[in-house]
Amino acid sequence: MAALDTATGRAGVKVLSDIPANAACGLPVQRSTILVASARTGECQAVLDGRRVTAVRTAAASAVATAHLARPDSSVLGLVGAGTLDGGGLRRARVVVDSVQTALAKSGEVVLALAENAIVPDDVGTELGAVIAGLAPGRTSVREVTLFNSVGIGLQDLVTADLLIARARARNVGLDLDLSA
C-alpha cells in the first residue's frame, strides 16, 4: 500500500507478506514493514514494523466507523473476523468501506460475494470518509444493519506511522541511521 500525505510532506509504502510456514517456527504469519520518506527529496525518514501500525489504524478506523454507523441507543457491538462473512451477510447489510476501490479488489469477503453474484459493486459503494464528511448517508434507519468492511488504505498507515514517529522522537526512542551515503 502506498500513500502521499501533502500535509506532512511524507510518502509511505507498506510491504505486506503472508508466510503461513512462519507459524511452525513461532513467527507471525503476517509481517509488514512500512517505509516513510520525504515526498520532496525521497530521503528515508523511518522504517517501522507494520504490525503495530496496522493494529492501531484498524482499531481506530473501526472506532470511527462505529461512532458514525451505530444506532444512538446501541449497547452491543459485533465484530466479525476476516474471511468469516458470506455474500448473504453482505447483501443484508448496508456496507460501508474505507475505500471502494480497495474493497472491490482486495477484500476477500467482497471479492467472493461478487464472484458468487450475491452482491453487485454498488452494494459496497459507500466510503466511511464520505459518511464522516456528510457527503453520503451512514445509517439510514434504526432498523438498518450496518457493516464496516475495512481492508485499510495506505494513508491510514502513513498517518498512524507519522504519529508513532513523532512520539518516538519526543521520547528519544528508536535508532537514527544516516542513509545519505
Summarize the structure.
With about 180 residues, the protein is an alpha/beta fold.
Describe the structure.
With 181 residues, this protein is α/β, with parallel strands linked by helices. The chain has one domain. Helix content is 34%, strand content 21%. It is built from 6 helices and 7 strands. It has helices at residues 50-69, 87-91, 100-106, 108-115, 128-132, 154-170; strands spanning 2-5, 10-18, 30-38, 44-49, 94-97, 126-127, 146-149. A 4-stranded antiparallel β-sheet has the order 1-2-3-4. It has a 3-stranded parallel β-sheet with strand order 6-5-7. Helix 1 packs across helix 6 and helix 3 crosses helix 4.
Mean pLDDT: 90
Tally the structural domains. 1
Q: SSE order in H/E notation?
A: EEEEHHEHHEHEH
Strand content: 15-25%
Shape: globular
